[in-house]
Design brief:
The protein has eight helices and four strands; from the N terminus they run αααααααβαβββ. By secondary structure, it is of the alpha+beta class.
Length: about 250
């Protein structure tokens, strides 16, 4: 009995680690890179002013998620002979870990430490914080009932999570700002000429001249900067670029 309890506990811990890692990847891939709503440290002005540092810490964050996932997989491998008898616990634990990540992220990262907000550029950032907190609470609640559900419920749960991601990717209001990283070999006058040709209006440029922010009537056409020597453009539907425009950056 004690051995079975220990095996069950190890399986549940492994699944929880996998769920936390998946929650972190969901956050990093969807919110940091595809939607470009925030970075891990975008709430800290000192770090947020340095694009390379923001990307670096995002990368370290993803590396940590890989470590957690690897640890969970190793633990599951060691308990592989018992997973068949306790498969429901794996699914339950993954859901619990996924939800736990979003709850901890909301409470610690958003409100206590102030590292970032889910969608700081929205008209109501608190709404998005609470939405993802609610997602976390929902997943934790579902994990408690998962052992009573049959396996057919798993695709429904997965589809629900994917559906939320798709719904979140729909713009609530049109964006009008893009950030552009030009070829270092191009001059400031050449960059301004490119902006003029595209009908873009300069908002700001970093002190090192690396990142330019422009306002456009149709920011989704910002991809056309690629034809004028741009290396990276944010704010386009294709997810081109992995940084958030910061209109106030000087």
């Amino acid at each position: 009995m004690q051995s079975a309890t220990r095996n069950h506990r190890q399986i549940y811990i492994a699944g929880t680690l996998l769920g936390v890692a998946l929650g972190g990847f969901f956050d990093g891939i969807l919110l940091h890179q595809i939607l470009q709503w925030h970075h891990l440290l975008s709430g800290l002005e000192a770090a947020g002013a340095d694009l390379s540092r923001m990307i670096l810490y995002d990368g370290l964050f993803h590396a940590l998620m890989y470590v957690l996932m690897l640890a969970g997989l190793v633990m599951l491998w060691r308990q592989r002979q018992h997973i068949g008898k306790d498969g429901g616990s794996v699914v339950s634990a993954v859901l619990f870990g996924f939800g736990l990540w979003h709850v901890l992220d909301a409470v610690l990262s958003h409100w206590i430490l102030g590292l970032h907000r889910i969608h700081p550029e929205s008209e109501n950032p608190l709404f998005w914080d609470l939405l993802f907190l609610g997602l976390g609470i929902l997943c934790i609640a579902l994990s408690r009932f998962r052992l009573r559900l049959n396996r057919a419920a798993l695709p429904v749960i997965i589809a629900g999570v994917i559906g939320l991601g798709v719904a979140a990717s729909v713009p609530w209001r049109p964006a009008d700002t893009v950030a552009v990283v030009f070829d270092p070999a191009s001059s400031a006058s050449e960059n301004l000429m490119a902006a003029t040709a595209l009908g873009a209006r300069l908002v700001s440029v970093t002190s090192d001249g690396r990142v330019w922010t422009f306002r456009m009537d149709d920011a989704q056409s910002g991809w056309r900067f690629y034809g004028h020597g741009a290396w990276l453009v944010s704010g386009t539907y294709g997810g081109m670029g992995c940084f958030v425009p910061r209109p106030g950056e000087a």
